[in-house]
């Protein structure tokens, strides 16, 4: 035998000696007999059999294949259909004792894992290509004793450091990996030319990198185009393992921190995005109205295109700072079918805080794992996502269906499709199917604020017809108030509250307001910068911003006769409608979405078509007949408001929890993972707000720091105060 062949025999002997041979798993070994004739292969296997004490010609647990794997398609093409699970180790890769047991232990209790790849010295994401195996290898590829000892020592350390930690990464190590039964089945059913990781993702499965196992690459052996492609892809994730490289250099494991527990009320967990808006309003209102339970809020934090870069746990939606923070190794772009990092965070929260129920308000930046906790779960439909990729269920007109053809047209031509643009139609179809499936297979109840939302969900997803569902109207946390509507005299005053956008009817208002302003004064309050397009119209008045809670004072000062809401999309609730009705102000609204559910035309408000002429004509008729407005105002004043207490009580009936014995310890919430953060910035803050907050912090820090000489503190303080005054003058 040649020196090279002898190296291969020896590395294969080590591999087989270190394998525990888990029942039912095929060990696939490509490339070990590459370039050998049939006679040389027989001699190779005979020599190997004598060294390891196995009859390789008859052992159906092991398949030695001459071809070097250039990807999973090579493996799948030669793998018998009877094989349900496979572990692949290519020529030139060393594995430590019990390697297969360690890989399988990660996947044995989780049906969502499609494949697991180990770490490898000399290969990203752990190494830059100059790992222990390369530094200690001879030119023939043999690893010397010192290098072998160093590698095995590092493997033992990795096994301790990463025993419970694994990375979900969109990579698959083609030369050494474990394909689970569900992963192998998905790949067999998929297009062989498609990236296997993409195939697994579309099947709702995840790809893991095991942090409890360290393999090694022998220099000069095992090279292939598939390995080169893997190295290029895995290099992008190398930064994620900086902590592990540091620990390997230090040679010791990190300390593990534990939490003490203190609370005496049952706990429920809200799942939300960090966009604010009506969803944030609702979550804060819910918590304000719930005096009998502890409510925690898990928010996804990210940026455009990666909406789930990290997860933050809060005591309420708008509370600051967060109680806990976790970074996801693989950011969630929109919604993950599965994410093991995310699942680990959920397990930690549910266990540490002893959560008894889950309320899902958004899946943006989250994973479908929120429905797999086994706990009773409520899904609150604040919008039409994830079935609707544009959120608002409108494309040219309000959507009654969305099949594959319409989905593709929407992705191409719908201007409302602006949030989630990085995925293919097939990915959305896979998400839709997984979403429906997970709702059907777990203890989930759908809750909608109005009947039309429930009907639309069931129309677009008829598979959910049997899903338990309830209509629970939102409550409002507004104090009782006499009507703030104007008397029936004077020029008609129209109020349009809230930020203006395409969805809220900005283009429709561009047609309406010039004609409406001929006989009415129009007040755009909280319109944002979009309202500036109307600043030149006589009779139109702008209030760009107002703080939440100031709506009452704004309306009290204006005393409008009527409100106008021109949404084009079928809103699921509309807090602005609720606020105007609460304060006795009749509303003219477009005939879409929840407006139809919540306005009885001519009795509690007015509905009109999505047409500028119809809106102006209705407004002119109300201006001419103020008695109609007076009648509606009286009806609104006699309608009892929907309270937060009533809303929360309805939710509690759907999500019962076990009582907590007096004095029983549950949790003590504290920002344990924020200790390294010197300053925490609210992700919803604008850059201007963050910069101004830091400016104020700097002023306090400079003028009070004892480390600076008094003359320097005084001079810097004067400079900062001058800049502050100049900033205020410019803003005024």
From TrEMBL:
Pfam families: Glyco_trans_1_4. This is Glycosyltransferase involved in cell wall biosynthesis.
